[in-house]
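Q: I have 167 residues here and want to know how they pack in 3D. Can you give me a structure?
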Amino acid sequence: MEINKIVFATDFSAGSNYTAPYAAEMARKFSAKLYVIHVIQDTEKMTSWYAPKVNMKELEKAMEEKSQKELQLCCTTGFGDYKNVEYHLLKGAPYEQILKFQQDNKADLIVIGTVGGHNTGKKNVFGSTADRVVKKALCPVLTVSLPANEAAESTDPRLCSSGEIRL
């Protein structure tokens, strides 16, 4: 088995921060290129069914700027000294963009954090994005769940509980 390229999908949540060292360790063991990606939900698709009362262009610009900064910061501690890393900010439906990026870059492995049922009180082990990625990926997917004593929601004051960046 050869693993030359690894995609690590982050939503900046506590689960993603916990997963980052696993992605870096897999990349280190295989001397693989590590692609760190974050997907911004496409606001046009999210708001097409109602008339928003905010300037969507300004909101999108702010989301992109904050996401780009967070993308560079999110995994620095988790990656340690591993430097063979590229960062990519994508836009669209998260699971679709993760799968498209994996295929376009011919990545051999996807690493993604999960929302464990023991952390949320839910029966589902995966969130919808991780679930869809696992079911539809054309390569192996390593899923990492927070330990039972960890909070699934982010405690970072810059982030909302679902990993969204506060503006």
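Q: Anything worth noting?
A: Residues 22 and 144 are 8 Å apart (CA to CA). The chain has one domain: 12-145.
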